[in-house]
Amino acid sequence: MKLFVFAASAAVLLLGCSSLNNTITPEPQANAAAIEGHMLFLASDELEGRDTGSRGHEIAALYIATQLQALGLEPAGDNGTFFQRVPLRSSRLVPNSARMVLHTAEGDQELAYPKAFFSGADPVATESSVTAPLVFVGYGLISEEFGINDYQGLDLQGKIAVMLPGLPDHLPSEEAAHLGRERNRFAAEQGAVGVITIHTPQREAVRPYANSILFLNTPSMRWLDSDGEPGGVQRQLRGGAYVHHEAAEALFAEAETPLSSIFEQLDANAMPAGFALNISATLSRQSTHEDITSPNVVAVLPGSDPSLRHEYVVLTAHSDHIGMIQDVRSDNRINNGAMDNAAGVAILLETARMFTELAEPPKRSILFLVVTAEEKGLLGADYYAHNPTRPIENLIANVNMDMPVLLYPFADLIAFGANHSSLGPVVERAAGREGIRLSPDPMPEQAIFTRSDHYTLVRQGIPAVFLMTGFESQDPEQDAAAIWGSFFAKHYHKPTDSIADLTREYGPIRYDFGAIFTQINFNIALDLANDPQRPFWLQESYFHDVIGQPHTQQAVLEAAN
Q1: Quick one: how far is CA 322 from the chain centroid?
Q2: What is the pLDDT of residues 42-54, one digit of tens each?
Q3: Would the pLDDT of 345 be above 70?
């Protein structure tokens, strides 16, 4: 019997040797050591927290670009390079320059800054001032889908809109968050020239007014268009202020309804209707501007199918973090951003390597987009969404990696946005192949689907998912949800989001599960790239009707020709 087995084995071996040219190439496998190496560099002290516009971030971007180049990917940035330079404007409010004066029948009343109100810098002008009547507009929302029009019956032409913060409780969180981001646009389209937001007692219970004052000296940032003008800004809104609820009573002193009644309606979960406040106000401020640039890194793996290679599956991660803290009393001042987002970039780079090891490229092309200025308001991604280096109608889907928490052996995966498009089943299958379950959003009230880089492409009509490690652990001795919560409470956006500090508290970083995360990411992108059907918004999704399906098959065919 042993002789027979040996002879049979030898025959199989000879057969294999005689047909080496027909050997099936095994699927690429993610390498945990490669992920560790990328993270060690990107989260190192030498990069000083990778703040947007800093030398440390420039080094990080160069590292990412050279890694993608070494893999043999094609540059997809500007002018045949791997870089898309994003023009940015950093704006600061000149100290003590903000003024808010109410003009009433009894005379002028100036509110104290910053005790009664505060204002941000103006990204458009260094000197700005507007005087106009005030009109209360409730939450300042318009939605045909939800039957909301807070401006109905109101005249806002040349006036200042006074609105409530937050969102109505009866709206779904993601849909409400999307509407909330459109408030300034709604006001401008109705003819408003300024916006005042009232800090309510309800908001005070969640986020005290005093906490916001701590960030008054923080600069704001916007990307600039080809004319050097800030993008995403409603230029006709020449004034803005955020008013403490006690000081805001003066805005309603001559109105038909007192502010206290509005607060009572909020307590009852009602939607306060708008009305004229019968007074006017002057809002003025001075700002300083500094224009800088910071790079997105863009690379492409060309597809193999002649009719589909012009379409792209987009994989994104952000390379920036928040730099250094200003507290000189601490020796640990560098916000290394190990999980946020060295981990996400490392996974993207390893995913790119896996794609280059395929025997044949996928049918569609894969676009690797590593963006800057996520921490400044999704600016690098938003700039790309408005200035894509490939036709926007050819970007068929986006898979985003932002802050995978690699501190425990996760048993499940969260894919924010999976319930809105055909990407959900694709993610579930890809995760299942690695023995990982797909779990529903564990914190829907946070509306996380609208809070990372992918959302800028969603607003252009592109289906997307944002992947995150789940709240279940494969180790029964570890409470994944508790570890995740502990990380956010103690280390998120702090110098202790470093490999050394996290290792001391939680044990070794789980690079092995970073490899599993990478494998899932690769599986998702590969399936999307080879599927004959483009991803689509589900008919029942809010985003199907609000965003629509702008990239029709006809548009794709026209682009291809």
Answers
A1: 15
A2: 999 999 999 999 9
A3: yes
